[in-house]
Amino acid sequence: MTKHTVLIFQKTNNPNTRTWTEHANITAALEAIIGMFEKQLAQTYPDQSHINYQVGDLIGFIGQCKEFVALIFDQKVNAYVPRDKAWIQEKIVSHLRLKLEKSKKLASHDMGNRASSKSYI
Fold it and tell me: Global pTM?
């Protein structure tokens, strides 16, 4: 089941910074937020070819925005349910944690495959 998601955000007090994006599901919306943050980092540090950041930096990016709301379609009530910055921040942390766990499992699996393939040589 997909949950169509609309992100509405305003970076500063200037109303001209208001914008919105729409996504097929919550995961796509979270990835878009990460992309927005990474784009801002690239613009802030144009001479850096590789930029490292911590989850707290991403959470701070969301918190510093004047407004940041996710509207998530709920089929049960046939309406969009608003979610605030704190909810978005929690979902970002959970999403990144899940991605990290998956990448560790893949790395572990790859190492296991390499070890087993070497044992046959």
Answer: 0.82
Closest C-alpha to 33, from 15, 57, 51, 52: 57
Residue 117: count other Cβ atoms within 10 Å of its Cβ: 9
For residues 41 and 62, the answer to whether their CB atoms sit within 8 Å is: no
2 against 110, higher pLDDT: 2
Q: Give every CB contact of residue 83 below 8 A, 6+ residues apart in sequence.
A: 69, 70, 71, 72, 91
Token duo for residue 92: 């970002």
Distances (CA, A) of 14 to 17, 24, 39: 6, 28, 20
Residue from 75, 81, 63 nearest 9 by CA: 63
